[in-house]
Amino acid sequence: MYTQAMDTMGKPLQAAAPASAQEEALQQRFDTRIDAGEFIEAKDWLPDHYRKTLVRQISQHAHSEYVGMLPEGNWVTRAPTLKRKAILLAKIQDEAGHGLYLYSAAETLGTSRDQMLDALHSGRAKYSSIFNYPTLSWADVGTIGWLVDGAAIMNQVPLCRCSYGPYARAMVRICREESFHQRQGFDALLVMMQQGTDAQRAMVQDSVNRWWWPSVMMFGPPDDQSPNSALSMRWGIKRNSNDELRQKFIDACVDQAKVLGVQLPDPDLKWNEERQHHDHGVIDWDEFWRVVGGDGPCNRERLAARVKAWDDGAWVREAALAHAAKEAGRERAVA
Ligand code: 3HC
C-alpha cells in the first residue's frame, strides 16, 4: 500500500510520443478504435502507458477483492443463523472468484500473477482503502453489503464498457454477483431494523455511522486531485469521474437509508433543487490518504493475513507443480 507498483507514478499525464513512423501509424489506429468505441483485445497493439494503466488498475482491483475477503471472514464462525452463514460463505467465495478473473485479465497484458502478488505482499501495490477498517459487529457484515458493495457496483457497472475487452468481460459477471452482495446486505439490515430489538437497531446505526464516510471515499480523490482520471477517461478505461460516481452513490443511498430507517451521519446532507443532487458535508481527505498510505486501522493486519495465507499455501503450490511434472513425464513416456 505504500508506493505504486507499476511505475506509472510521476510520469506526465500525456501518453508518450510514438517513436517511429510505424508506431505513429499504430498509435493512430489505436486512437481511432478508441474513438469509435471498439474493444481493444489482448493481441492488439497497445500504447505502453495504456497497458501500464490497465495493469495498475486491474491488479489493484484484484488485490481489493482478495483483501476484501478478510473483514467479512471475521464473522463466518459467528453468523447468527445457518442461512446467514451460507450467504456469507457464498459471498466471500465470490470475492475470491472475482480476484481470479481479474488477475487473469491482468495477465493478458503481460504481467504474471507472481509479480502482482509479490507487489501486494511486499506492500508496493495498492488495494481499496475500505478494507482497512475493522468489522466490529454483525451489523458490519450487512453494512458492507449495502454500502461497500453498493459503492463497488456504482463504480464497476461502467467498467463493463471499459475499452479493454478482457477487463470489460470480467466485469459483466462480477457486477451480476456484486448486485446479489448488495441486496443480501440490505436485506440483513432491513430484518434487524424492522424485526429486531432496540439493541439491534442501535447496532445497525452504529455500523452505518462508522462505514458511511469510508464508503464515500472509496471512489477515490476529488476529480481535481485525481492524477490518473484524464488519460483513463480519454482511453475509455474509466467512463465516469470519481466525483460523478460518488454523487450518484450518495443520491441513491439517501432513499435507501429512509427505507431502512437509519440516519446517514452527515448533517450537511440535503437535496439541492438547482443541482438535482444532494449536497454533502466535507470529506476528510487526510484520513483517506493516511489509510491509502498504509496507516489505517487495519492495514498491517490485512497485509500480514495475506502474506500468511500465501506462505501457508506454499505446500499446495509445490504439490500441484510436482503432480503436473509427474503427469507430463507419464505422457512423455506413453508417447
Ligand atoms: N483506495 C486505495 N487507493 C485509491 C483509492 C481507494 N479507494 N482511490 C484511489 N486510489 C489511488 C489510486 O489507485 C491512485 O494511486 P496510483 O496512481 O498509485 O495507482 C491514486 O489514489 C489517485 O487516484 P486516481 O483517481 O487518480 O486513480 P484511478 O483513476 O485509478 O481511480 C479508482 C481510482 C476509481 C478506484 C479506479 O482505479 C477504479 O475504478 N478501479 C476499479 C475498481 C476497484 O478497484 N475497486 C476497488 C474496490 S473492489 C471492491 O470493492 C470489492 C467488492 O467485492 C466490494
Structural overview:
There is one protein chain. By secondary structure, this protein is an all-alpha fold. Strands 1-2 form a two-stranded antiparallel sheet. The structure holds 3-hydroxybutanoyl-coenzyme A (3HC). The site of 3-hydroxybutanoyl-coenzyme A has 30 residues, from α2, α6 and α9.
Number of strands: 2
Estimated share of beta-strand residues: under 5%
The oligomeric state is single chain
Distance between the termini: 49 Å
Largest sheet: 2 strands, antiparallel
SS summary, helix count: 13
Shape: globular
Arithmetic mean of pLDDT: 94
Low-pLDDT parts are: 1-13
Bound molecules: 3-hydroxybutanoyl-coenzyme A
| Structural class by secondary-structure content | mainly alpha
List keywords for this structure.
335 residues; 13 helices; mainly alpha; 64% helix; binds 3-hydroxybutanoyl-coenzyme A
Q: Can you summarize this structure?
A:
The protein has 335 residues and is an all-alpha fold.
